[in-house]
Amino acid sequence: MKSETLYNGIRLPEEWPPSDINLRSWQPGRVPYLESPPDIINIDCGRQLLVDDFLIETTNMTRIFHQPHKYPCNPVMFPQGPEERNPAYPPCAVAKCGGVWYDPQDTRFKMWYMAGYTGAMMYAQSKDGVHWERPDLDVVSGTNLCLPRTYHPDSGTVWLDHEADDPAARYKMLFREPNDLAEARAGIEHAAAPGLLMTSPDGIHWSEPVTTGPMGDRSTMFHNPFRNRWVQSIRSTCPRGRSRHYWEHADFIKSGAWRKGQPLAWAAADCFDQAGDSLPQLYTLDAVPYESLMLGMFQILKGPPNHIGLRHAEPKLTELVLGTSRDGFHWHRPDRRPFIAARREPGSWEYGYVEPTGGICTLVGDELWIYYNAYGGDFTRLETGLNNGMYGNGAVGLAKLRRDGFASMQPRFAGGLLRTRPLKFSGNRLFVNANTAGAELRVAVFGQDGEPIETCSAENCVPFVGNSVCAEIRWRTEDALATCKGQPVRFEFRMDRGELFAFWVSAKNNGASGGYLAAGGPGYESQRDE
Questions:
Q1: Are 323 and 335 in contact (CB under 8 A)?
Q2: What is the distance between the alpha carbons of residues 503 and 510, in angstroms, rounded to a whole number?
Q3: I need a surface site. Which of 145, 210, 362, 491 has the fewest CB within 10 A?
Q4: What is the 3 state secondary structure string of 339-372?
Q5: Alpha-carbon gap, residue 439 to 368, rounded angstroms
Q6: What confidence category does residue 191 fall into, taking pLDDT thresholds of 50, 70 and 90?
Q7: Domains in the chain and their CATH numbers?
């Protein structure tokens, strides 16, 4: 089998995806591309985020990881009306089985969500991403149901596929029902049941489902555009508890065509994950392409065990931890603090079960808007199983983060310096996302021989002073960076104070990076910053 080289220079081994992941070990998994980075890194695709040392050869700056700020008027979607407050199910309106995307064709934010816990699948839309309306649809007259009531959501993902060859498959969905219903639909007993794959031209009218191989509940899927693969994030169980197995294919429908035993071991919680009432477990792993890498949301279960939550009708504690990947399989997770935390206060709408949504985040102006689910519980419902109040009062919240703001490099004293590894690009304009805190940011460029390029020296650089998510770095020689196109160079960033979040080279004067935009956002016509 011929090995594959990714756009950024990472060379994958001949066996890919790898089959050497040990889910018995509590040690964190290796990240091969950080152990052996490419000799030359191509940075033509997207903003280059400083979330790890992949791009860095030497620095005296400190990396700081950042967390988003929750919207003060949360939740932005909560259970209302007869479907979402159907007494047959715990009250719920959560996008854990769907997601939130921005569709440029009709300039709307769109949400697919569970109405009543495992009750029905519904659709909402918004002009601003904060105020949501429930339109009347023709799937079930007089409601905003996007699937008949005969389907009952438990988990899954809705994906807006901007590159779909067939307009009828512009939207794609993995849909997994509760275990007993999924098993009954598949005609099996006491086994991991299949999920259902569907496509749609508009996200409302869905095709007849195609079954996947066997998967556990809370399974999800995503698309990795860097390799053009649809990836099934399959819930599994290992000696450490809940874990994830992996299966991929370039064709969406074929990505579900596996047999028992074929998916490969992929990810689990490890000894660095924080827990409380029980050992940590990996409840869900969702992902989305953002700029030049994949963002991952690891939903970490911290307890207590199911029987405790059911006894008190209180949601278990799960929280979201951020991960990033540059090869789409191995994850780097140096910061194990909750990226989005629960609020274990009686009466809180986000008491527990903090969950990611499909698409993970949208881009709105200079901010990333991150949608998440959480549950308040319902102590009046002490039934057994999925009707227990442990799953009650689920709602959707919003958290906001600076664009590219997952991590920044910060000087801790005057003379901060960061020099990159050898990089290659085809653009001619350098941009940064930085806050200089009143100091100057200068950039020097060094050739392959290690000598400074005079026209792009630090002395010839026009210093940037300010706070911007897209600031061009210029030199006094006009179009100085154009002479560096196509040849390996190193950038050296110098600043005394402030934060450097990302840098990139573009051929466009507006700084369009060519990178991926997660679930999109206003002002963008595709999934890429073009």
A1: no
A2: 14
A3: 210
A4: CECCCCCCCCCCCEEEEEEEEEEEEECCEEEEEE
A5: 26
A6: low
A7: 40-64+414-517 (2.60.120), 69-401 (2.115.10.20)
